[in-house]
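Following up on my earlier thread - several people asked me to post the actual chain instead of describing it. Fair enough. Here it is, all 760 residues.
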Amino acid sequence: HYAGLIICTMSLLQIRIVLSLPVLNFPKSSGGLKRRKRDWVIPPINFPENGRGPFPEHMVQIRSNNDKEVKILYSITGPGADQPPVGLFTVDKNSGFLYVTQPLDRERKDKYILLAHAVAVGAGTAEAPMEIIVKVIDMNDNKPAFTQDPFMGTVPEASKAGDEVMQVTATDADEEGSANSDVRYTILSQEPPLPSPNMFVINPVTGMIRVNAPGLDRENILKYTLQIQAADMEGNGLTSFGKAIITVTDSNDNAPQFVTPSYTVSVPENKVDALVVKMPVTDGDDPHSSAWATTFKIVDGDPQGLFNVSTGPSKLEGIITTAKPLDFEKNNKYTLLVTVQNEVPFAVPLPTSTATVIVNVEDVNEAPVFSPVEKMIKKPEDLPIDSDLVLYTATDPDTARNQKVTYKIRNDLAGWLSIDKDTGMIKVKSPMDRESTFVQDNKYSVVVLGTDNDEIPATGTGTLIIELEDVNDNPPTIDERMIKVCNKESTPQLLSITDKDGAGFAAPYTVQLQGSSLSNWTARMNDTKTGIILTLKTMLDSGDYTVVLRVSDIQGLHQESTIQASVCDCKGADVQCTDKAVAGFGLSSILGILGAILLLLLLSLLLLMFLRKRGGEKKEPLLQEDDVRDNIYYYDEEGGGEDDQDFDLSVLHRGLDNRPDVFRNDIAPTMARPEYRPRPANPADIGNFIDDNLKAADNDPTAPPYDSLLVFDYEGGGSEAGSLSSLNSSSSGDDQDYDLLQQWGPRFKKLSDMYGGGED
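Reply from S.P.:
Thanks for posting it. Predicted structure:
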């Protein structure tokens, strides 16, 4: 009976619930599937979250207006139906009842949009799809959560009541703007509760913590811990708890103080960044804080900015240095007033500490100063020797010492100038030349030194720049020294002219033939008057001829130039000359030369026979024990070249065995000494002088060194290097560089001068 009663009661309850459910009718439509009006809006279904069931729980009934005429089947689509989360909402296909199958969570999804469908059995769609919006109603199921725990903050110890310290915040996941998420803050406790249990107060809405009472003291209490409560429902709902830790920081309530209030120092003049003084200070605030670190300032005694003050690495020391050179002659004493402060302003009014620094400037020996440091003058290049050029002096800045300045010239590369060491008067020592390689852009520079007579002398420098004015001291010259022309229908030759002088002393030029050149040549200037057109007007035999030309510049300064003209047996511009050594001699000359050569060979043969005969009459040992020159000396074993395995020293004795006695150094030669030519005065004959004396030396048995074989070592045969026997003192040396002998010492210098044509 009880079971039947319960079932009956539950059935009645379900019937009552069903009868009380709202009914959603499909909008009326004309024509079945025609589009419904835009202004037809189905109100959303509000359904609370966290429902307790039983599930499935009825939500609403969907109904078609045509359900009385035909059988209607209902269905739903959309998120929560046939889309994730699938099966959250279901519908009875026959009755149209919409169910929720499990509790909803607004924090996960606060709204669902479904489409309801009504289909007539056997007739297709009976209604257009209807949009159903299920809005989840928020419940207070989330308590506030602090954004961090603990909160960290600082407060200066000198803070006043009402000063902001820090802000705490908490969030609530419930619906924003509702009472479920309206959080209020409260300070539950303060640790330590000194000097007052309410040193801080919190704004219940914003969570801003402020100072509530005076008495913060970093030296006594360094840190406070506050217990904070956050509650929703405007402070009457769910609660959570957190901490706020507040550190009391140091305030600049102690002024830095100089350890010594006054200093007296000495600094040498003319030095920049020179250390003047270091000034230590003390500060009672927290070490290494901004209220403890110091800054310094010179407030009086330095209007010209000659000094600089900075903070030392320890932050408790002021360092004064020189920012500009001090001048003893201008001011030998400075009195500076220096103040010290912290990096941050004082928290309370405090007196500023000051120090006085007396700086005595030390006098040092300064170098004389030229005025101007770079002096430029303009002078003609042809000033006579020993003429005054300019007076260039320096003054000694050390006026109190009354020192004397002496002068000297340095870097006078051309050696043109001299200076009076006492007066500074610069004179011309040797002729100046604007066209010299030492002159750049018509300017010649020298450095002048001025030195005082102090115990440790100081030297100043000045630069003298002489702009040399050009004078007509260089005659024009012809660049070409040799030409070749044909003796028939000769082509004119263009000769270029060079004049080292500048404009006004050079072109236009004039030219005149000199001597015998007038009869065979013509010379005239080209159209620009800068080149000579030389033409052969007479047909000459082939050979070398000398053409003398006098070239004058615009002012008539002239110089005769010699041109070596090779006249060839040809025509026009096609100049082809045969070998001069053959073309210049006739048949008789050639025969005479051949006869002289044969006679020389015959005399040489007779001389050789005479020497052999003399050697047969008197035999002397070729090598004497005291003949140091011809002995074999072993200096070192250096290898035998490419083939040094077999050493046959007999090869080296072949020449010794056949050496004539006349070349012995221990026997006086019996041949007559040849005659040597004296050195010619004309440099053009130096070639013949060398050839003649070379031949005489070759035939002079008394001339050292004797032409004997000196045995040093045998280095093998088959070497790739050339044989030393190819050296012949009488061979031509036109292709030799005899200047290399200058590096071998004084004994070879004479040989270099003789063969190389040196001036000595």
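The mean pLDDT is 78. That should answer part of your original question.
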